[in-house]
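EI: anyone free to look at a 367-residue chain?
SC: sure, send it
EI:
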Amino acid sequence: MIVRGAVLREMGLPKPYAESQPLRIEEVELAPPGPGELLVRIRAAGLCHSDLSVIDGSRPRVMPMLLGHEATGEVVQSEAPGFTAGDAVAFAFVPACGECGPCAEGRAALCEPGAAANTAGTLLSGVRRLDGVHHHLGVSGFADHAVVSARSAVKIDSTLPPEIAALFGCAVMTGVGAVVNTAQVRAGRSAAVFGLGGVGLSALLGAVLVGAHPIVAVDVVPEKLELARSLGATHTVPAGSDAVEAIRDATAGGADYAFETVGSGKVLEQAYAATRRGGTTVTVGLPHPSQSFSVPAVSLVAEERTVKGSYLGSAIPSRDIPRYIALYQAGRLPVDRLLTATVGLDNLNEAFDTLAAGTSIRQVLVL
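SC: here you go
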């Protein structure tokens, strides 16, 4: 079949993207699903910094590529057990094989064949169903249809609005998961969140969910700080050189947990400095591969500090996506507050200008 989607053929084109047009809306031939795969009618797809980092070249991928990884849709054809036509699904951006070492240990986010397929721009099976175009993180959700591995899909409640359902596949799973799965924050422990995009605000929602206190939110955009306070942050701090001291003041000496969601080595150093003795720093953002960070080595031992990475929120998607959706429906995770705007396929370049400017939380493509 022929699908219409947003194809990136060259990374690193200059901003504004409304002028350089890195994403071209093209017709691409999509082969039918093979064994263990699904054909899905895409309903909505979120615009994420992981997409932007491919567009600007800070996260190099094989080209050309049909972008979009935070998406939801309806199964049209199933060649996999457990799925039938009409099922509503959300996608995880790491397909979990279920058999490799990390999968056997319950660490689906670190699936080795899934990571290899994502690097190669293929589905989990190693094949491409898009003619002459690579898949983005096994999803390629900026199109009206996609073929995906069933290992990338999770069945969800079909009554959930698509523009909300899409958020659970990346922003919510990553941010909430960093708090619940990676850090395992306990009630009454203090937390600081650096960066208030979709993932950072989801981490804030996760901290509120588990009863962290106090909760300090850090960003450069005043409107995001206001939103963070309305979502449960007890303190808000403008990003900058004074942020570390402000967090220490707000948490009586330093946060028990600090979450870095910006993707910056410099911000990661600040997050580490903002934790107390025995504190844990969790880094969620994806910096350019050339970036590094440094900490006083002795503090890791003498102060029992911990630095942890969190990918996909250390999630098991088939467990966590339905769980987080149920919490949203129960009023415990107000994910709908993250939705900034909905956009059309022909407006994606302009929408990525908005994302790059830092003035949006989550824009969602609705198809």
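EI: The chain is about 30% helix and 25% strand.
SC: 👍
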